[in-house]
Design a protein that fits this description.
203 residues, mainly alpha, 10 helices, 74% helix
Amino acid sequence: MGIAGTGLRERHRQQVLVDLHDAAVSLVDQVGFADATIDLIAGRAGVSRRTFFNYYASKEDAVLGATPPTVPEEALSTFVDEVDADPFTRTVGLIVAIVRSTFVAGTVIEERRGLIARYPQLRERMAQLVVAAETLTEVALSERFARSGPQPRSAESSRALLMLAGTVLRYAYLSDPQAFESADSAAVQAAISVFRNALREIS
């Protein structure tokens, strides 16, 4: 298949993702989260139940418009190259970028915010996506440093830093479910400051 064919297939995939998300959101608004079944969502979007699972892993993901996280190459390069920023802040920023990669282009931020606020299931799913992003971050950094030479810090230190960054993001999310909607989220920056101060007090 040529480049044009690949582009067409990707546009079709993105459209089906958006159609399923829109169907899920509209049904949740009409009948509530519990009664908005996968069969109803698929039917409203004009696809089969089997096709639904080719695009989303769960009803929660369809409502959120979330697919498995990926590592944006630009974000990974920023982490490696921006040595002026401290490792802690850079690690938090990288995980945020990976979490944000889960959101399907064309989904509406305001809708997602409202639904997360209303349904605990969606808040829980977002927390799971953060954990998935942490794991992916660890793998991506290990691979990048393996290609470029010795890691700049011990494996134990790197893992501790990554776990701390993930904890910061969960703290930010509890304070503000919109924390991952932008790369320079005020909630994330506030959480970083809170943890810096707490660590300073016990050091």
